[in-house]
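Hi,

Apologies if this is the wrong queue. I'm a grad student, and the batch job for Cytochrome C from Phenylobacterium hankyongense produced an output file that my downstream script rejects. I'm not sure whether the problem is my script or the file. Here is the sequence I used:
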Amino acid sequence: MPSRKIWDRRVIVVTFAPAWLGALVALALASTPAGAVPAFAVQTAQPCQACHVGGFGPQLTPYGRNFKLRGYTQRATAFNFPIAAMAVASYVQTAKDQPSPPASGFHTNDNSALDQVSLFLAGGFGAHVGAFVQATYDGVARTFAWDNVDLRLTTTTQVRDRDLVLGVSLNNSPGVQDPWNTLPAWSFPYTDSALAPAPAASLLISGSLAQTTLGATGYAWINSELYLEAGGYGSPGATALRRLGADPFSPGDIDGLAPYARIAWQKTVGGGVAEIGAVALHARLHPGMDRSTSLTDRYTDLGLDASYQRTLGHGDVLTVDSRYVHERQRLDATCALAASEDPGCARATLNDLRLNASYYWRDRVGLTLGAFDTFGSANPVLYPDHRSFKPDSSGLTLQLDGTPWGAASQPARRLNMRVGLQYTHYLRFDGARRAFDGAGRNASDNDTLRLFTWFAF
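Support response: The file is valid. Your script probably expects a header line. Output copied below for reference.
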């Protein structure tokens, strides 16, 4: 039988859900002008829904992908102020109290927070140079740091009557430069909270190197169908990273350069746009910047992805995104530092499977269902707090959101807003369905309800 406290929370949710949904629909039916990353909207004189599904970022339409690949340089105005901002706040509730507060100054449950405030430099400068630079205040950790950076140099030409876009991206996170929403950097869920429970295991390409690396990649976008990209990433110095607000010790620094490659093919199919692709990243790391063993950890991520997006009658948009990534790990340094005597310690694998489907009605109301499954080999050195020593976590995330100004024409104002309700149900968490921590906590105890507001201006 559920505890009185949990039962009270369920009553609160059931009682106020109709009112909240009513407010959501009312907002959705409003008709005030809107903007996505407002600086880009003003620069291009395009409405938000031209570049973003549902009239709000970051899920890109084919038009938005083309804008990104051409270096953010499309312009309809002689000059605009290339500065924008956003703020995200949320309320987070888990099925059962977390074992300890998720961050200093917060409770074990029922937390409200200003998740983040970001400032953007976003614009094209001339015909060949563009920038998307983000700096963020983390309202949970109460720290400032650099965030996503994507500086581009592009040009266009023709080869045998085929359009060709050539570009170079200088960025600080493998995949942040990608124009599809299938790779981890820009995939669903597009917003989350540091106050919610999260599985411990993740791929190297799933943000582990974000903001602690710097890389350059060159790409070709051929006839708006074939995308080819290759480049490499390295680690800035520890002093520089600390000054930028990043932790240089997590996960460690790259030995030499980490090569990155991407290929994708996009084609109009059945009235929509289909894409299939592959991605690869290989890196040798000094874990925690520790060189005392003279060894490194080696990671090889190989992934496949596919997506389909179709605009239906009345502008409704159906999108399906998917990816599978296999990571092969050779953890010689980590196992040596742990003085592990297990001969199998150094060899490990991690797999990640994602499938997300969304439907956006009139660019105002969206419903997204995402399924995730992360699984791999057991390793007591890597996962000592997991009862099974396995990394496995799986579940479903459902999001209902409203963007009241998402369907409006080109904005005269620099404002957009999304409100949403997320619910994540865990089938497995950190290696098991039941008592995953060895202390009786079940995966479903971490089921999370999150109500969020997201402003861009």
